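Minutes, project check-in
Item: structure for the 164-residue chain
Input as provided by the requester:
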Amino acid sequence: MSLDPGEPFPDLDLPDHTHRQRMLSEVASGDPVALLFSRGWWCPKEQRHLREVTAAQDEFEVAYARIVVVSIDRPEVQSAFRAGLGARFTFLSDAERAWLPRLGLLEETDTLHHPYRPTAFTLYPDLTIHAAYDGNWYWGRPTIEDLRKDMRAISRAVRKDFER
């Protein structure tokens, strides 16, 4: 499966942090998406990065853009982690690792948890990939400024009235 810019991202079907089954397209709801694959709540790098993302959630909300986090954590663990962050965005649980092998995003150095490799995608509302970030090393993860620029580019492309 190709996860390169310009390619369609699969319409994930996973339970969210409330155990409700969700489709990625449903969560996107016609808006641009920052899709973040996370090792899990226990990783200090994930905690740090998601605190930064959470700090930007107000901006995403008023700009009609979505943030979605996918991890192997069970929904009840995600719910607790989300509450601790103060996040309002959606967490999707792949605790059964249904999508992990199909996406080819296994973190190969962690033989205990078998989590996702920290990877981020910015997506158009139709789930076409705009940009991909390999965050195996912390500096490979998108900064808020990277996400802001991607969301601006996507919004400019899909919002007919973006520039008047």
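Outcome recorded: The first strand starts at residue 13 and ends at 15.
No further action items on this chain.
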